[in-house]
Amino acid sequence: MSPHLSPPSRSARPGEAGIDVAAALAAWVAGVDRLALFGASRGGAQVAAARQLAIYLAHVALGYELTRLAAAFGRDRATLRHALRRIEDERDDPAFDRQLTGLEAILMPLRRERVTVGGRCR
Fold first, then answer.
1. What molecular functions are annotated in GO for this chain (predicted)?
2. pTM, rounded to two decimals
């Protein structure tokens, strides 16, 4: 099954579709199965890198809080902070930065579509 046609993950609860979109995009870029990003095991280096990218995109481009991302990806907040630092460090490479800027641009319309209900993004 292709990464963007996989069945919904455990993160696909109401209001968290953006997490799945970020994961699908990161999995597509890395050439891995989207569901592997939500697995309990670390997976191979490609899966781990794709997961870090998905976490970064969901947090930075879509504005998801680390607590929600930790629950969705089954990781603790320290692991998420490590992922964010790693991707930020990689942005020093101009080619990577251009690619990431393009991925963020793809996701930005989804951020604008999220609505606030009772003080919380849905």
1. ATP binding; sequence-specific DNA binding
2. 0.80
